[in-house]
Design a protein that fits this description.
elongated; three-stranded antiparallel beta sheet; Rossmann fold; six-stranded mixed beta sheet
Length: 353
């Protein structure tokens, strides 16, 4: 806890002075009572309950005064509270490697089931958008709170050739920040960015990505954007499109965190289609780099159960946010309640205010 006006706490020195004044008043009353023939008769008339009650209203008033002074200093504390205006974009790998059955019943079916559970468990106010990527990337659902539309979008996933992880990240970023001026045509759909194996992944690519951004753009600290995040799930290596790490730098410059999930066993698995087969393995290093650049985290899910746990963890991280909250209002209300209670008990027990 911290205080925005800490100098106001000096007024707390008045509390022991008031306590001393109360004690002095009681001492004067006891001293003046010697004129009675016997103090024992007065004490017996009052009884222990009455003697206790006489101190309750002053103590409540003293507590109200202390709480009011604390409120005057404007205390604030950090709490975990439901996020406001939260938007999450899921970027899902739908390359043909997702057919692999090293995760049962298959990678794509397990990923769809986990995504459905993730969406259903999110608070109702959280908006979710969905992007899929294979040889290129596309938006399958714009951000919405309509869970039925989101679940239907997940059911429409279709596997395609190649893996353009960077394209998926850039499209997800443009979906999360539609007013950021991201030039998708030059960044994602330019042929120079789509050669098999990432032919433009050398020193020319960062320069072209930078050139495609708005000239008036100013970078912000990574992770400083608190109204949304991207979750990127992939099971293989990027084979085409922009470098995902360079795309992650674009997200980092806009303060957006990209949580990455590597899906599939680390040993990989075989896939077969169109008369040929291949063995696909997870590129953890690239996914870790994307998360690190954006001040987020990388998760590995080697099974359907692992993936569900990852999404459950992300639900608690993204649906809640740390917020610095001022406590002056609730403390003022508490002080008022204590003061009213002191006055009410004084009237009820002793018929005086």
């Amino acid at each position: 806890m911290r205080f925005l006006w800490p100098d106001a706490l000096w007024f707390m020195l008045a509390i022991p002075l008031l306590a001393a004044l109360y004690w002095y008043v009681l001492w004067r009353k006891r001293k003046s009572a010697v004129r009675y023939a016997s103090l024992r008769l007065i004490r017996e008339a009052l009884g222990p309950e009455q003697r206790f009650k006489r101190h309750v209203p002053p103590l409540l008033f003293l507590a109200a005064f202390a709480v009011a002074l604390a409120a005057l200093a404007r205390p604030s504390a950090v709490f975990m509270l439901p996020s406001r205006n939260q938007t999450i974009v899921l970027a899902m790998d739908v390359s043909r490697s997702m057919r692999a059955r090293d995760v049962q019943p298959s990678r794509i079916e397990a990923a769809q089931a986990a995504a459905r559970s993730f969406i259903e468990e999110l608070p109702a106010h959280v908006r979710v958008g969905i992007v899929t990527f294979a040889g290129t990337a596309s938006v399958v659902q714009t951000p919405t709170t309509n869970r039925e539309d989101l679940l239907a979008a997940i059911d429409r996933f279709q596997l395609q050739r190649a893996t353009a992880t960077g394209s998926g990240l850039i499209v997800a970023l443009s979906l999360l920040l539609p007013d950021a001026g991201i030039d998708l045509e030059s960044m994602v759909f330019d042929r120079a960015f789509s050669r098999f194996g990432g032919g433009a992944a050398g020193s020319d690519r960062p320069r072209r990505l930078e050139k495609a951004e708005r000239k008036d753009f100013k970078a912000v600290p990574p992770g400083s954007y608190t109204s949304g995040a991207i979750i990127l799930l992939s099971d293989g290596r990027r084979t085409t499109g922009p470098d995902p790490v360079e795309a992650a730098k674009m997200a980092a410059d806009r303060g957006v965190r990209v949580y990455t999930v590597g899906f599939g066993t680390k040993e990989g698995g075989p896939i077969a289609f169109d008369g040929w087969s291949a063995y696909v393995m997870l590129d953890e290093e690239a996914l870790k780099a994307v998360a690190k650049v954006t001040d987020a985290e990388y998760f590995h899910a080697g099974s359907a159960a692992d993936l569900r746990k990852v999404y459950q963890s992300l639900t608690s991280r993204l649906a809640l946010e740390t917020r610095d909250t001022e406590l002056s209002a609730p403390l003022s209300a508490l002080a008022a309640l204590l003061a009213v209670s002191a006055a009410g008990l004084s009237l009820l027990w002793f018929h005086r205010g």
